[in-house]
Design goal:
The complex is a heterodimer.
Chain A: E1 5-12, H1 20-42, H2 47-60, E2 80-86, E3 91-98, H3 104-114, E4 119-121, H4 122-132, H5 145-156, H6 172-181, E5 185-186, E6 189-190
Parallel strand pairs in A: 3-4
Antiparallel strand pairs in A: 2-3, 5-6
Helix pairs in contact in A: 1-2, 2-3, 5-6
Chain B: E1 2-7, E2 13-19, E3 40-42, E4 46-52, H1 54-60, H2 62-73, H3 77-87, E5 94-100, E6 105-109, E7 114-120, E8 125-128
Antiparallel strand pairs in B: 1-2, 3-4, 4-5, 5-6, 7-8
Helix pairs in contact in B: 2-3
Classes of the chains: A alpha+beta, B alpha+beta.
């Protein structure tokens, strides 16, 4: 039997022009989350509890695309989703389309532990959240100025933008040009193929 | 998208993923993160959390595939991660982190950078963005 091990991520597909200070910010958050998990593991916490603890921290910090700081829908709202799985007996829980649950990963954990199902979505997930008494907040809590700007870029570029942390530039127009220049593809097709959907 | 994978001292693996999805996505769109077997998977052998182009990850059942090639092809964790990133994504772009019941940790991605941090009980720790 080996010792404990842990890994965290904050998303893949990083804009090559990401400013150094934003890269540093990201590394500090990742380090903080690793250390949070490590001290829990050193105290013999179980893997499933450490996963929930660390993802909650990542959801609460607005830096990455989850919880507060989530990407915005075409309507400028936030719809979040999460899942968790315990390798022992392969138990799992998932939620989609939640708009007021402060920590979706904890609701997914409750689906796994406190419901007869593996997945609840939209109004059913929100009703279960109220029944379980998890912390609820207004949808505005999840919306950041950065992401309002990113949504504007995406609309000007008429595309679905990945979670690029596009460097803050002088004006949205210039940044929009950057976004349009970025030939973002999805499944090998130009992203614009998906936009009309 | 954010994720965490852990194996504890008892060799138990777990995985979790959480996201807001894609900027400017359609209302009601569901990505890979909540889909067990696509964005998130854990078994007795390993725990996996994925991020990237959700539609590609779903079609590849990427997270489950890491466990499957470990089970059926006998690959070790990093080999399994490299194999699925190389062979399962078609033209899609994605990244993933994984742990095994032996206390190993691995990550792989075929896109431009991935925000990740990894640590093991023997003192190894790495936080990185680029290759």
């Amino acid at each position: 039997m080996g010792g404990w091990a842990i890994a965290v991520h904050g998303g893949a597909g990083v804009d090559p022009n990401l400013p150094a200070e934003r890269q540093e910010e990201a590394k500090q958050l990742l380090t903080r989350c690793l250390n949070l998990g490590i001290s829990a593991l050193e105290s013999n916490a179980s893997a499933i509890d450490v996963v929930e603890l660390v993802v909650r921290e990542l959801e609460t910090d607005p830096l990455f695309n989850s919880g507060r700081g989530s990407a915005l829908t075409e309507k400028g709202t936030v719809e979040m989703e999460a899942s968790i799985m315990d390798g022992t007996r392969r138990r799992c829980g998932a939620v989609s389309g939640v708009t007021t649950v402060k920590n979706p990963i904890s609701l997914a954990r409750l689906v796994m532990d406190k419901s007869p199902h593996s997945y609840l979505a939209f109004s059913g997930a929100e009703a279960f959240a109220r029944q379980q008494g998890v912390e609820l907040v207004e949808n505005e809590y999840f919306i950041t100025e950065d992401n309002v700007g990113m949504l504007k870029l995406a609309k000007e570029a008429n595309s679905i933008l990945f979670d690029y942390r596009i460097p803050p530039v002088g004006c949205a127009g210039e940044a929009a040009a950057t976004a349009i220049d970025l030939p973002t593809k999805m499944n090998g097709l130009p992203i614009s193929v998906y936009s009309p959907e | 998208t954010v994720g965490c994978v852990v194996v504890d001292r008892e060799g138990r693996c777990a995985a979790g993923t959480s996201t807001g999805g894609l900027m400017n996505k359609m209302v009601g769109r569901i990505g890979d993160s909540p889909l067990i077997g696509a964005g998130t998977y854990a078994s007795e052998l390993c725990g996996v959390s994925c991020t990237g182009e959700g539609e590609a990850i779903i079609r590849a059942t990427l997270a489950r595939d890491v466990a499957a090639v470990m089970e059926y092809k006998g690959l070790e964790l990093q080999e399994a991660v490299d194999y699925v990133i190389k062979n399962r994504l078609d033209e899609g772009f994605a990244g993933l982190i994984a742990v095994s019941d032996k206390g190993e940790v691995a990550c792989g991605f075929n896109c431009n950078g991935m925000f990740r941090g990894i640590a093991t009980e023997d003192g190894f720790m790495e936080v990185a963005i680029w290759e």
